[in-house]
Amino acid sequence: QVQLVESGGGLVQAGGSLRLSCAASGRTFSSYAMGWFRQAPGKEREFVGAISRSGANRNYTDSVKGRFTMSRDNAKNTVYLQMNSLKPEDTAVYYCAADGGRAWATVSPDPRDYDYWGQGTQVTVSS
After folding, report:
1. What end-to-end distance do the CA atoms of the chain give, in Å?
2. How many Cβ atoms from other residues are within 10 Å of residue 82's Cβ?
3. Which residues are bridge partners to 124 per DSSP?
4. What is the DSSP letter of 57?
């Protein structure tokens, strides 16, 4: 069992930055690939990015490439999402998720592959 708690959301102007954190419980954090997803009002949950168990492999959806960066600190059981050059269309609730079925260096963009989810943190970008 893994519990995930996101933090760092808030209100920011377009062009600004935020860093989201996701703290995981338990001592097996490195066993999980981690993902970030988001859901805007009236829309389906969408993949934002994922990072492999080792941290060496990362994958992002096209709309955030070059603006968002994921990282993880396995010693602190925490994964981060650094968001720069934010746009109003980035407004959503952001969720982190843990994927326990992933090989060391692989990631998945499919939310069905993720076993545990956080409660979400709101990110609002004003124009």
Report:
1. 40
2. 14
3. 11
4. -
Q: To the nearest whole number, what is the mean pLDDT of the chain? A: 96
Instruction: Assess contact for 84 and 64: CB atoms under 8 A.
Output: no
**What pLDDT, on the 0 to 100 scale, is given for residue 101?**
81
**DSSP at 43:** S
Query: How far apart are alpha carbons 49 and 104 in whole angstroms?
Result: 16
Q: What are the tokens at 37?
A: 């997803």
Confidence of residue 1 (pLDDT cuts 50, 70, 90): confident
Average pLDDT rounded to a whole number, residues 11-37? 95
How many C-beta neighbours within 10 Å does residue 66 have? 9
The tokens describing 103, both together, are: 């090989």
Q: What mean pLDDT comes out for the span 44-58?
A: 96
Residue 113, classed as helix, strand or coil, is: helix
Cα–Cα distances in angstroms (integers) from residue 22 to residues 34, 39, 119, in the given order:
10, 17, 10
Rounded alpha-carbon distances, angstroms, from residue 38 to 27, 76, 103, 119: 26, 23, 24, 11
* DSSP codes of every residue in 84-115: -S--GGG-EEEEEEEETT--TT-----GGG--
49, containing H or E segment: strand 46-51
